Amino acid sequence: MKKGIILVIDDEDIVRTSCSRALTPSGYEVKLAKNGHEGLSIMGGDKIDLVLTDLKMPDMDGIEVLKKIKQDWPGVEVIIITGYQTVDTAVKSIKLGAFDYIEKPFTPDALINAVSKALDHKNKSQQT
């Protein structure tokens, strides 16, 4: 049984692949997008439970992706992943509706933990 459908949006192939390798054996279905536009296109066609998005990407950054997801799919949780963490961007992400913010490089356990917490929160929110 699938635990949820997760979309990973990151311009780095190694990050997308690493997330998929960490999450798939734990029972998650993982979809991959190399940029924000591709990710939003997938959002429009598939039922996505959670989005992991990079903060710094060409064309459309993670903040823009977060705003669009929260506007068009408010029930979808978003976790920002980045190697450029600052307090300001972390606070801004959370204020805009991100569930969490994790810094690269992260361990598979840290990723699975963050995803599990976000999906638990989503499920509890839908029950109320």
Automatic annotation (TrEMBL):
Transmembrane segments: none annotated. PROSITE patterns: RESPONSE_REGULATORY. The modification 4-aspartylphosphate is found at D54. InterPro entries: Bact_response_regulator, CheY-like_superfamily, Sig_transdc_resp-reg_receiver. Residues 5-119 form the Response regulatory domain. Gene3D superfamilies: 3.40.50.2300. Keywords: Phosphoprotein, Transcription, Transcription regulation, Two-component regulatory system. One of its GO terms (biological process) is phosphorelay signal transduction system. PANTHER family: RESPONSE REGULATORY DOMAIN-CONTAINING PROTEIN, STRESS RESPONSE REGULATOR PROTEIN 1. This is Two-component, sigma54 specific, transcriptional regulator, Fis family. The lineage of its organism: Bacteria, Pseudomonadati, Nitrospirota, Nitrospiria, Nitrospirales.
